[in-house]
């Protein structure tokens, strides 16, 4: 608990931290029972690693591919359960909502089958978002390609409360392709992560002059929390006008390095780098969104029937900066906690389907742009790709690791202009507000999340955790409160801020 709260710059919700720390071990035992295979020491017990910000060795892992192993075990369990139906390659367009007095109620989701280009409407009394983060609002991210903030944007449009979006964690050490002996033939779609455990295992950070620099910034040196290490690297890059720094683990025994970090060693060797002999070129990359859809202790949101778990959620666990490895733990704990309340919702809401009958007549159906010429669609796709790159570069340039009020205001203005330009381009070419396509819908969500990050950052007049601004460089006890973004009116709003099914039916 203490390590989590210290890393979170005392913005964590203490009850949430207690719940996760208390229930976490049982969730890990359940994973093992499901077939997840974790590393064991010579004594037969689980091998526990240590990462930045942790005072003890306590992290269960599967070599340097823990997330992959957990996902493998969970997917296998899902496939083998006859009661679970998986709809692959379906993209969530918008949540379906209705008003019940002052309450917003979620009644399902519209989705796009990306393979068949067919819109599918799922009606449900209970919906749980587990859609991950929004790393692709930045040009370089460790996140998978699908992390375009879709769940956060859908929830925001559906009147869910959003919290703490200014706290974007940049992982301090992603592989810097520019520093590899053999350059990758094309730009990576997502950055390759050099795990925190390399520093936990004794890895040392050097600048290109081979000067060790972390002791200049923090007494915890390489084991300082991620926000401190990322800012320190950023400072070194700016001072030397360099593209990367170096992370060296080569002083450790070769066999130990290869057994602890087989995946990293193999990836680097592909490009001519032997990590048992040479330092690894690293650079910060967008990694984790500490903010998201505001959730209670059961994963519930202010929208009835809507639950969240994982990175899409803001439970209060991470505060202003997530402690290493707490992401997987939080996802497990809150997914489990949402089970019983969602069952209760199913049983206790007989009136819901009556509401669906009433609402569904007024919901517009999203349509694919089959009425547009293929040349027009191609032009729209090309323009959307350019706009996305432009937005990402604005975010990196003005809303990165170190911020200022002027730069944030510049970002706000330029994003607004870019969004108007993009939407005007679409609609002038015959795109309708109810039209959907994967790239256009992702772009709309990227715009939505980028604006949420900028407005949250402008609202915090202090530096805390991952949010560092030169205009308010100190921590202010009076400002130790979460940032809250309440639902907004959709009047005069942009396409990215409006639910598609709420468009007028022609």
UniProtKB/TrEMBL annotation:
Give the pathway: Cofactor biosynthesis; NAD(+) biosynthesis; iminoaspartate from L-aspartate (oxidase route): step 1/1
Compartments, record wording: Plastid, Chloroplast
What region holds the FAD-dependent oxidoreductase 2 FAD-binding domain? 2-328
Q: What are the GO cellular component annotations?
A: chloroplast
Q: Which GO terms describe its molecular function?
A: L-aspartate oxidase activity
Entry's EC annotation: 1.4.3.16
Q: Which residues form a coiled coil?
A: 401-428
Keywords on record: Coiled coil, FAD, Flavoprotein, Oxidoreductase, Pyridine nucleotide biosynthesis
One of the GO biological process terms: NAD+ biosynthetic process
Could you tell me which InterPro entries the record lists for this protein? FAD-dep_OxRdtase_2_FAD-bd (IPR003953), FAD/NAD-bd_sf (IPR036188), Fum_R/Succ_DH_flav-like_C_sf (IPR037099), Fum_Rdtase/Succ_DH_flav-like_C (IPR015939), NadB (IPR005288), Succ_DH/fumarate_Rdtase_cat_sf (IPR027477)
Q: Which reaction does it catalyse?
A: L-aspartate + O2 = iminosuccinate + H2O2
The Swiss-Prot or TrEMBL record lists the needed cofactor(s) as: FAD
Where in this chain does the record put each Fumarate reductase/succinate dehydrogenase flavoprotein-like C-terminal domain? 388-475
Glycoprotein recorded as keyword? no
Family per similarity comment: Belongs to the FAD-dependent oxidoreductase 2 family. NadB subfamily.
Described by its record, this protein's role is as follows:
Catalyzes the oxidation of L-aspartate to iminoaspartate.
- What NCBIfam families does its record include? nadB
The protein in question is named: L-aspartate oxidase
What species does this protein belong to? Answer: Punica granatum (Pomegranate)
